[in-house]
Amino acid sequence: MIGYVTLGTADLNKASAYYDELLATIGATRFMEEPNYFVAWSQTQDGSGLAVSLPFDKKPASVGNGTMVALEVKTPEEVNAVYQKALELGGTCEGKPGFRPEDANQGFYAGYFRDLDGNKLNAYCIVEG
């Protein structure tokens, strides 16, 4: 149902470099961009995408309170890799990888982080027992 998600940024070059490396961990590459405005990534040309953009209205980018983008991966190891890469690239922790609820040993496994502009994301997978 979701075609793409766009996150605002204050520094397109810095955000683009961050997401180039982060999204490479899940096989996504740039598929569309407009210089000095936005860059978008996807795993396939016709799949869902993630973009970063300077705000169209030229006002400062801001983080939506309660807004989060979830990146679906296949395994807990991939969740861990995306989360670690996000932090290595300068992102901040919003919740270490693990099952939710924390006492579970199957089901929803996710790691939460914020990007360089403070946008909240997670990488998640579903683990069946």
TrEMBL record:
InterPro entries, alphabetized: Glyas_Bleomycin-R_OHBP_Dase, Glyas_Fos-R_dOase_dom, VOC_core
One Pfam family hit: Glyoxalase
Top-level taxon of the source organism: Bacteria
Limits of the VOC domain: 1-126
CDD domains in the record: VOC_like
Species this chain originates from: Thalassotalea euphylliae
PANTHER family: BLL2941 PROTEIN, GLYOXALASE FAMILY PROTEIN (AFU_ORTHOLOGUE AFUA_5G14830)
Protein name from the UniProt record: VOC family protein
